[in-house]
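**Protein of interest**
===
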Amino acid sequence: MIINQLSEIKRILDDSIKKYPSIGIVTHKNPDGDGFCASLVMQELLMNKGIKADIVLEEPARAVYDFLQGSERTIVFSEHLRYDLLIILDCHEEERIGICAPLIPTAKKIIAIDHHLEHGLIPDTDTYIDIKTVSVGAIIFQMYNDEIDSLPAESSNYIAKALYITILNDTDNFLNANVDAETFSICSSLMKYKIKPGQLTELFLLSKPANEMRFVGEVLSTIQTYDNDQILFIDSTINMLRRNNLGPEANTKLTRWVKGTQNVKVTVCFQEVSSTRYRMSLRSNYINVNKIAVKYGGGGHEKASGCEIKGKLDEIKRLILDEIREQL
């Protein structure tokens, strides 16, 4: 069921965490800085109420989140896990939860909070979606900002750092078109908890080892442009990752390296998952890329979406090129 009021979803969530003894928190597969850090925020808020909650991931947390104790605060999915209350953040579709999806049918209560376009709601789930809010972390801040004020300094600082990362992630360091006055208002409010924005930006976006930068260079060398440079494709391969001793997590946010390229209206990054499967990240301020992603089983926002697609890379590129041209 769709919940339209923020106050109502907060009431439902607060009532549920009191009622149900075991709580699990999940986000979408291949978690990003919004879904993952929003989960850390929710867990910390519950800890301050004396309530334990597990953050369940498909695989161990990435090293980039070590400064937020990402590995220590999360567990990896296993078939024996069961939760009375399941909180889903930055996602509202069963398919996007990936291998953690078996937690859904065994839960007695499910609450989903998201800011992506509505698509494929999970049955019997109280779902709140606000596509105008910059990140799901920002939604949680709006729900609990008064409570954050009353927390011990160490805890409020931790929450503020994690919330700031959700905004850094979903604005790409304030470069995306979703940045508005409310975005800066929230960031201004977080400053009173003594966060250091420059340090957080460096930790989350800039602190990359030399082998990862070599990988980025290889990816940039694949740039192809079409239609007078209006469409730009880049791709990463499994061999590129192996050559640079990297895992799939290095594929995160590759499109940011070509953001602002002159004349480009649509950017697509094709990431090889297997010889016949690719993950696509689509970005544009000119067309609705979500329409393309949804068509192939994905989702996201009008200006930033993703999906996975089967086929050979050349065939996939021709297919997506046609889809983009239809809108351009």
Summary: The chain has a mean pLDDT of 96. The domain at 211-327 is CATH 3.10.310.30 (Diaminopimelate Epimerase; Chain A, domain 1). Residues 153-171 form the longest helix (19 residues).
